TrEMBL record:
Record flagged with keyword Phosphoprotein: yes
Name the UniProt record assigns to this protein: phosphoglucomutase (alpha-D-glucose-1,6-bisphosphate-dependent)
Family annotation (Pfam families): PGM1_C_vert_fung, PGM_PMM_I, PGM_PMM_II, PGM_PMM_III
EC annotation from Swiss-Prot or TrEMBL: 5.4.2.2
InterPro entries per the UniProt record, alphabetical: A-D-PHexomutase_a/b/a-I, A-D-PHexomutase_a/b/a-I/II/III, A-D-PHexomutase_a/b/a-II, A-D-PHexomutase_a/b/a-III, A-D-PHexomutase_C_sf, A-D-PHexomutase_CS, Alpha-D-phosphohexomutase_SF, PGM
Enzyme class: isomerase
Organism lineage string: Bacteria, Pseudomonadati, Pseudomonadota, Betaproteobacteria, Burkholderiales
Amino acid sequence: MSIQTISTTPFEGQNPGTSGLRKTVDVFRQPRYLENFVQSIFDSVEGYQGKTLVLGGDGRYFNSVAIQIILKMAAANGFGKVLVGQYGILSTPAVSCIIRKYQTFGGIILSASHNPGGPDGDFGIKYNIGNGGPAPEKVTNAIYAQSQVIREYRISDAPDVDLSEIGSVQMEKMTIEVIDSVADYAELMQSLFDFQAIHTMFANGFTLRFDAMHAVCGPYATTIMEKMLGAPEGTVVNAIPLEDFGGHHPDPNPVNARELMDYMNGPDAADMGAATDGDGDRNMIVGRHIAVTPSDSLAILAANATLIPGYSKGIVGVARSMPTSTAVDRVAAALKVPCYETPTGWKFFGDLLDDNKITLCGEESYGTSSNHIREKDGIWAILFWLNLLAVTGKSVGKTVHDHWKRYGRNYYSRHDYVNIDSKGADGLMNRLRSLLGSLKGKVFGSYVVEKADEFSYADPVDGSVSERQGIRIFFTDGSRIVFRLSGTGTVGATLRVYFDRYEKERLDMDMQTALGELVGIAGKIADIKAYTGLDEPTVVT
Ligand code: G16
């Protein structure tokens, strides 16, 4: 075994977006592409010599090749140890959990999250820091800057390591410890939730359908739901992780988890349905004939937190990403705790959690979590709901309706215009920007614009400022339309338009009917058709 120093030249565009570097598999397979980015990570952080790195991914195509390369590069760069998931598998929340439990230097997660996988799909790589959370912008900016000037990388010529057996092997001076992918995470869940109460609920006939979407949560959900909590075998469906997620889009929303939605709207529906995404950080909660919006889910968890053992002492504050509905704001006001509004991207919650300003946080994009780790956490959210139902004895639907009765309802929807021309998308945003000063007071049908602005965020902990985080149009009745471009796509641009309308009394309108007028107004103000070339959004959730 020897350490090689290989000359290289920079690749354009190795710029981590909302959540790590995401590109098509084709791009990642180019010689030196992955190596350049990994070396740029190592070159951008200091003090890792002899320290421990956590490494794992969601099992998608190219995961197993990338893991071996990264192990050899970690050894060549002087890490003391790598904790790697068996078969190279670790969910994103599990990586965060393991970094924190063993106080490691950081971790690398291989995933493109909810993006499709397989040879024609996407791949991704994300660096998490010692608090267990995604690297903040100052770090990702440094990685990008380094990737643009890189001249060489270091790699060991050691042979590939067998990751199928739990145990330790040596590579150069570094120890590689192959760990059980599920055990540490399952133990953490057990410390937060009343497993006995959930076990009893299952024993009394409660039914759950957990759609793991052929992604990373299969083994986690099978161990926790079926083995530890006693749910019947078969509760977890699509449980075997596949390199191409069975050809599906592993994104737990009513559109991509169609199979689950049909089941939950059918005659044999379970008491609760749930799904998780490619890397296990997103979740969707479904009741019989009702899909809970992620924004409502966050609000409901916050309102009921004291019923859960891990949060029985109450919550210190909450946070949501800006486009997420304001449902949780009302809960925070009732609880008299602060509610922070951050840009889209889980990394923005890290400081607030570390500084103990918040206990729970969430996003409209099917992510919810708490201070137990520094990532969003799909199985955690599902266990929270199960624990809640076990304590209250209510159904999912009744829980949601009772919440609306008390706090009012946010009708909420997101329209995505996917893979559109980048120039058109930038043109649309620039034009909206130019209109901001002139929208106030304008009347559109029954809506009057109260104010319009572009969201900018000053982190209350470290003072760093993130600008251009979405254009917001507020109306006098409290409704909002938000426009922003996605930071996770790999082809062209994706325009997201978010609609949020609050109703205190009328709680049972059809969602798209309730939002229809706002949808028309958005199309008109932003001239969406002209800029995107699309008559209709590609995906509506
Ligand atoms: C990532 C981020 C989330 C963000 C989501 C969508 O999730 O961690 O914070 O809400 O992308 O971002 P965008 O609207 O920019 O596409 P994940 O699950 O993809 O890692």
